[in-house]
Amino acid sequence: MRILLVEDEPKIAYSIVSALTGANYRVDAVRDGETAWFRGDTEDYDLVILDLGLPKMDGLAVLKRWRAAGKMMPVLILTARGTWPERVEGIDAGADDYLAKPFQIEEVLARVRALIRRSVGQGSAILTAGPIALDTRQMRVLFDGAPVSVSPLEYRLIGYLLHHKGRVVSSSELIEHLYGDDDARDANALEAVVTRLRRKLGPDFIETRRGFGYLVSDEPA
What is the pTM of this model? Predict the structure, then answer.
């Protein structure tokens, strides 16, 4: 899952990036409103964490421009502005959730998980497909109830496909959401990860739709 963090306070940004990276999210961090608007307008994110008091362009203005352009990624407002009229303004501008500073990082992570699940129609923190289960709180993968050892990249791939269960996901979409800018970003590297997961979780877990992408469903391929 790919997250855009928009926060101009370095210590807060570092804390959030560290926590999200440790929870196996891919994070892009920017510090001003103009850059945030451009990134959100031109790239695909699973969620945005957006501060309001930003240089160059206010966070609410950024959010309104995204929504006016039809950008529907979930947005969590994270700000020192804590009065209820300001919260109402943020929600009315198109925010999906609101968390005032100071905050506990565990609450940020919980809200991130919930917003991403809801955005794809998933209600539970435990995502399943047949005998496979992914516990997003504990960051564990289970096969028939037994834990399976996976790498961070394998975990992100399982998580993305389970969040989008029943939909064919293209290789380009997976690469965009799973890899960092310095990682190998090609279809052959992705196919190698899929092959490793089939060895660990069974050959029918991930179905390849030639020319289209990959599919996870409750029905065997």
Answer: 0.87
Ramachandran assignment for 130, one of left (phi > 0), alpha (psi -120 to 50 degrees), beta (any other) = left
Q: Return the bridge partners of 27, or none.
A: 3
pLDDT tens-digit readout, 98-113: 998 889 999 999 999 9
| Residues spanned by the domain of 202 | 126-215
Mapping DSSP to helix (H, G, I), strand (E, B) and coil, where does residue 177 land? helix
Q: How far apart are CA 35 and CA 55, in angstroms?
A: 10
Query: Of 71, 103, 119, which residue constitutes the final position of a domain?
Result: 119
Residues, the chain = 221
Put residue 54 in one of left, alpha, beta given phi > 0 → left and psi -120 to 50 → alpha.
beta
Phi, psi dihedral angles at 163 (to 5 degrees): -65, -30
